[in-house]
Amino acid sequence: MDEIINSKKLLPENLKILCILSFIGIGLFNFVSGINNYMTIDKKVIEMESKINKIEDSGNGLLIDIMHDAQTALLKEQQNKIPSLIVNLVAGILCLVGVLLMWKLKKNGFFIYTIGELIPMMYSLFFIGFGKGTFGIITSAFLLIIPVVFIILYSIQLKHMD
């Protein structure tokens, strides 16, 4: 009986930390942020127009360009707010299932998680477009770097999974 109890694998500390960070990120980004963005995108577009009108008087060319880039991204997001919400929720569910499986040391969780992380990237690329200008480049880089880093970190942990 002791052999059965002792043979159960323990969750490695690094994997546990990654999973906890993923639970937080999935909850905040995919679910809370996705729903909030759906509900407030129209208001954000109106606020952006107001901010641009105020900033155009300042004569700061770089800031004006950044704001116009942000406005373009917001308008595309507004036009696609229902598909965007669906993508965020589906991706969030896939990532959540993947992380739960990895928490149980199941290797297939990594592949489900990876698909869940890639879906929003592909959606953004095809429907919203890769960012142009300073704002777009920074936003696109952020949307790509964080998931890629987590995918790499999880792939390092595959040796602990069955």
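That was protein one. Protein two is written in the same sequence-then-structure order:
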Amino acid sequence: MRPGLIIASVAAVLAIAFGVFMVDIDQTEEASMPDVDISVEGGNLPEFEAETGDIEVGTTTIETTVPTIDIVSPEEDNRTASND
């Protein structure tokens, strides 16, 4: 197998595991269907409480030295290509 495919598979599994374990949802009330006869009473939707994990995000300033490149074209250098 290619290393890129393996790394992508591992990253996908980690992302799915992260999503599963970072959210905790508990049902706090059961659902019920509306009573239907001559008059209709409203139903009841279930209630849920959800707890999510905390993620702290920050920034860091990093200074790097970027090399400069001088490119001299043959016209500027007065050179010509030889086709020998």
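The longest strand covers residues 23-29. Keep this in mind for the problem set.
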